[in-house]
Amino acid sequence: xxxxxxxxxxxxxxxxxxxxxxxxxSIIVATPNGSGSQTxxxxxxxxxxxxxxxxxxxxxxxxxxxGLPTWYSIRLSKDGYQARRFTKEVLVAMNPATxxxxxxxxxxxxxxxxxxxxxxELPRNDITYYPxxxxxxxxxxxxxxxxxxxxxxxxxxxxxxxxxxxEVAEIEAAITRHFKGKTKPIQINMxxxxxxxxxxxxxxxxxxxxxVERMDSTNGMIMLDGNSAGALGAIFGGVTVAAWYPITPSTxxxxxxxxxxxxxxxxxxxxxxxxxxxxxxxxxxxxxxxIGAGWAGARAMTATSGPGISLMSEFxxxxxxxxxxxxxxxxxxxxxxxxxxxRVSQGDLTAAYFLSHGDTHHICLLPGSLKExxxxxxxxxxxxxxxxxxxxxxxxxxxxxxxxxxEQFDYPEQPLDRGKVLDxxxxxxxxxxxxxxxxxxxxxxxxxxxxxxxxKAAYFTRGSGHNADGRYTERSDEWVDNLDRLARKFDTARxxxxxxxxxxxxxxxxxxxxxxxxDPAVVEAMDRLSEQNVNSGYLRxxxxxxxxxxxAFIHKYERIYVIENNYNGQMAQLLRxxxxxxxxxxxxxxxxxxxxxxxxxxxxxVLEQEQ
Length: 611
Hints:
The chain is an alpha/beta fold. Helix 1 packs across helix 6, helix 10 packs parallel to helix 12 (about 315-320) and helix 18 packs across helix 21 (about 600-610).
């Protein structure tokens, strides 16, 4: 079968005989950046979520403050799919500058809402147009001229509510939540929404082929972004110090810390904060502060993105070689260099894994959901302290900044794992100890913390050559001994990092490997491939270094497709490097266009290889 013969995702917009598509379509909203559309779009997605409909939102915005085009994609899926969808059925065209291109992306049978004064040509006759009197309704609202451009987006919220059947009560609940109960902005926004609904009821009589209806698929679930989930996880993991420098798309993770820490981390008696959040002068200084705090015994972290990772290289090597715990959240974006700061990529995989000069290997966690952002948010500290090293959590812009639905998070029941820390009592029972001795054969030495009341506790922390007792050395044998021990520690890490998750369809003939925010697209693609009699096994890698389960999975299949959102196929490269005898089985499917992967692209890519 030729790829062109197969539509790799349903095309529900191609509707005949008056059929109505319910809870299975995508909306794309096109606006100029800085026009206040985020409030309107979040209102729509939250209202649909409150109606029990599985829904996700993708914000595609430029890296300027105001003026350039921005798009917000909302996917409703009665089947619970959360990946970005290639096909769009509903266009809200609020930006004349992009209308000519935007209108070409809508599936036949779709609909287009646009301001009635925009003077845009309507080139297609296979979609339905709905003009909206935006300026007239905003003017009637009585809002001052300074707010009209921002409140105008609530017109399309009201018109969509009428056309699609979004309950106005849920829209009001979403607006109330957004403005945290503040009466005046709620009244202003709902005034425009209600006026738009009333106008649409009186003037838009053409039946809309898309509708939303109540479901119960989001009962007990939450809607959040990954950066907020990661911040909550860090708090439950005992973070006490966060040092950072602002950079898109990680800034909102620190913003979330600043929102939640005052509520969750304060002295029970005095109410005083038990944490410190410090803005450094740059990313290098931020990681230096984190390593200093980790050396002193604090659970410390920073958050950054690719350019910040580049600046942190020297201190990453210090953490690795001096064996000081630290946690770095890398919310990945498009590179190289400045790249596209507001577009997604998974291009930091090899950079983070090998960061710094010399022979370094770092622990990298790869969350693939909101729940894992929370779980890895606290697990990263346990791993950093147990292994006495830097741990990177590699999220990305799609997972970090966009809205996802999730099961509720589980309270971490396990106590904090501080690793091999010697206190004064333990030291009193030792004749001697060496900071970098491998006593247990796992490569992990014992450490002490500053302030330990024992004359045996002190040692000199250095990033230069040192022997098992922490003393300066340039002896070749002692240098090699230390590198050998660090390699044993890395092998120990393979046994304690999060294991991959495997899903296998019956009669699977091929294997799929992926990670991170690709997961929803891969899961959906498996269903599409199965419809074409191409069943697969799927291994979602959740950490580096690879665990034994990864090699076992590769042995099962003659062809392994490694699916990732970067140009060079970095995960495929790492797999070939670790398993050279299996390298010929590994096929890289890498895409790097600044957008989240779709099930359609994965399906078509696999089918093309399978021909």
